[in-house]
Amino acid sequence: MWQWNKFSKKIVYLAYDFFMKQFSVKLIYLFLLSFGCETALFAQAGKALELNNEAKKAFGKKRYRAADSLYTLSLNLKETEEAYLNRAACRHQLNDKKGSCMDLYTAAGMGSKEGLVLFREQCSKSDTLYKSSDNKIADKTNYAFKEAVETCELIGSYDYIKYNVKNEIVLSYYAIGKDTIYRQGTEMTMPEFPGGGFKEMRNFINNRMQYPVQARENGISGKVWVIFTVSKTGKIEKPIVYIGMKDCEECNAEALRVVSLMPTWIPAKYKGKTVTSSFRAPFNFKVN
Q1: Which residues pair with 128 in a beta bridge?
Q2: How many CB atoms lie within 10 A of CB 79?
């Protein structure tokens, strides 16, 4: 009996030692992976800024083709509304109206007011339709729904917003090519973070978000908004910083890192069918 207990203890100690070594290795690996990813993001942002500055110089010298190429290289590393706006200006000078409109459309989608104004001035056509409750054309003094439609034939974009008489959004979506992305509205079910919706998403973010050390030491606070697509299967795709912190690129990068860790969502639904949708998530960086 004594021999068995001694042997059992030895097995347990060996197993414990093996587990702790494996666990430690995994922790070190995850730390290095996280540190490596963060370092790579900062390096990419730095290189993108360098290319962006070179592109501005080329544009100033009216070397529009070179500037276009440099902005493209910059955007491959880091997408920003400023770079899209500037490349649109290059393509406008090169008489590439389709390319210019596509960049203005993208910048507007990232939250650029200037991009939206220029897109509407140079690229799109808008119309407003008034409908009755049975979806027939109605007079604007007596209607059930109002439909705001904006189209651009050059890039094949279609933007649709449906309002009720209280001016509340009933349905909103946009399409470019064959892709239709639903935004919001009472006629659709919004995408949902698994396990508890917005509250659970906040818990997920708070438990994983790491305040950049330098930002904390310098007392930098603010909010980062990230917009991303939730596919029909609930997969998170195409995350971009919608509204970032100009004085804290590390905070912008951290918000994107946390989004990349999110699990599969419950997709949006319209008329009982799952649809691709967009979602905006806030990331608060506040020094206590």
Answers
A1: 148
A2: 16
Which residues neighbour 235 within 8 Å (Cβ) at sequence distance 6 or greater? 264, 265
| CATH H-level superfamily of 1-122 | Tetratricopeptide repeat domain (1.25.40.10)
Question: Tokens representing 246?
Answer: 């100009």
User: In the numeric block, which tokens belong to residue 83?
Assistant: 């770079």
How many angstroms separate the CA atoms of 238 and 176, rounded?
Answer: 15
Per-residue pLDDT band for 130 (boundaries 50, 70, 90) equals: very high
Q: Residue 83 carries which side chain, given as an amino acid letter?
A: A
CA torsion angle 213 30 199 265 (round to 10): 130
* DSSP E strands, the chain: 125-131, 145-152, 157-164, 169-176, 179-184, 188-189, 222-230, 236-243, 268-270, 273-275, 277-285
For residues 69-98, give the mean pLDDT. Answer: 94
d(CA 288, CA 278): 32
Is CATH 3.30.1150.10 the right assignment for the domain spanning 197-285? yes
Flag whether pLDDT at 139 surpasses 60.
Answer: yes
Calculate the CA dihedral of residues 200, 242, 180, 95 and round it to 10 degrees. Answer: -170
Between 64 and 80, the higher pLDDT residue: 64
**pLDDT digits over 242-265, tens only?**
889 988 989 999 999 999 999 999
